[in-house]
Amino acid sequence: MSITHIVMDSSPDQTRKRNQNQTLAQKSLFLYFSFLFFLLFFSSSHHSFYSHTSLQPSAFATPYSATTKLPVSLYVHDRILFPDHVLLTLSNPQVFPPHKLHCLYYILINNPALSNPVYDVLVRPVLSTDRYDEFRSIARCPLPSRNFSAVELSWRDGDNDNQPFRFPVKPTAQHSFDMLAYEVALDNDTAVIFVKGLNLRPHKISNASLLRCHFGPQNGAFWFTTKAVAAAQEVVRCELPQSIQNNPHKARGISATVSHVRDEAMIPSVAKIGGYREEINRGNKKKNKLELCACTMVWNQARAMKEWVMYHAWLGVEKWFIYDNNSDDEIDDVVRELEVKGYNINRVAWPWIKSQEAGFSHCSLRAKEECKWVGFFDVDEFFYFNEMRRNALISIVGNLSNSIAEIRTGCLNFGPSGLRTHPRNGVSVGYTCRLRTPERHKSIIRPDLLHVSLLNVVHHFELKEGFRSLNMPQSVAVINHYKYQIWEIFKAKFFRRVATYVVDWKEDANIGSKDRAPGLGTEAIEPRDWRLRFCEVWDTRLRDFLLSSFADRETGLLPWERSSE
């Protein structure tokens, strides 16, 4: 870490003249961009909005090193402030190794009204980088201990942190994730916008007539306004402007946001049309849909991924949508290994914290183009059938009445089962003692038969009128939920819960909720008898089946224990 001192020298006369010139230039640019945007929608040009490099948003000049040539053009589009880091969206979808980049924080150390403001530049390593969509990548920067005016990126020059930096053209406020339109997806003639800050009622469908939707360039030069047709929690479905319906290929890169009818101010947005949907539909329109897919959201669950995927592939799951919520483990390596083995994995970078319900709504839109049925369950949850056979799960969904749009299966919660260390051969073999009574359920749904609002409470979705749910009889199947594992793994739940409306365990609220572990407080302190808790019934049925049917006869290893060839 290093700090560079920067002084902005300018006399009052120079400042006044520069401001006058900048004002004239800004007015000219505004008229030019507005006219260009108008032509964009109503001309016959095939170029998308986003592809115009002259319109790509960049509030700052690119940081540079005097001794290091930039490998590509790279701009920071947006800065989103989270409780524990700053997320930067970048102009290039190429992912650069984090050790190649620095986070720069500009910290004002005197009065900004002075003619010579003085800034410190604080340099910190980048936490991680990732691909976000087809035209953006992301980088995560740590929160510094001091308040900062702006954050940027710089290329590293070997191990030398003391580089000359170009100062930003003007300070730009960071977006707070508490009030932000963060994602948008097209769905036929509507756009589904995902947004924080509306404060809509949890678990309820809201009055969409109180909201308005807006589409335009991120600089706000020109906006189309339409009405919302459905709203629930963090999801707002909007009518598309007619110009976009007529020319959807021209909408790529356009920003989308919402406002309340009582407040004309639009919620800040980093949501851009394109990316995900284009990626889904490319080359898939003429293909038959898969019968059964699975969707989950994970944070640092790489160790459990192979076991979960391989086992459920045997039951009939054909594709997996893995929504990665800021993992910093080996998930990329595990996904690549599974893909080499022939498993159809789609890892989705989902950097938005406390947004599991919205993520599942987003996944239902993505999966609808490819899958007839989609299961929403976690990587520590394993289906078990009283009559175990290959493709048992896909056989169930393939033989249901057309009026059924959701299957709900009850969960049996397993405890640490006396273990002190993580079971080498997997959770489905290692944890064998559980609570007696099933608790809650997980669902497999028809994504084309969901309510227009996409309302869900993680465990199940709201369905279209005229369709119903089916409760899976416990005599047919259950889900083994390996919920209470050894303490070193379980305590990660104290870091942050992914569901929007579940209180983080560090907060002194809802202490008696089923979303918490019984008997635990607000601190990650291991109870002395943790390994013996949640044990009422010894249940070795799935373990016995796997050891007898899946283990290699010579080595005794299960498929997920074997190294990649």
From TrEMBL:
It is a single-pass membrane protein. It is found in: Membrane. InterPro entries: Glyco_transf_92. GO terms for cellular component: cytoplasm; membrane. Its EC number is 2.4.1.-. Keywords: Glycosyltransferase, Membrane, Transferase, Transmembrane, Transmembrane helix. The chain crosses the membrane at residues 29-50. It is an enzyme of class 2 (transferase). GO terms for molecular function: glycosyltransferase activity. The keyword Cell membrane does not apply. Belongs to the glycosyltransferase 92 family. PANTHER family: GLYCOSYLTRANSFERASE FAMILY 92 PROTEIN, GLYCOSYLTRANSFERASE FAMILY 92 PROTEIN RCOM_0530710. This is Glycosyltransferase family 92 protein.
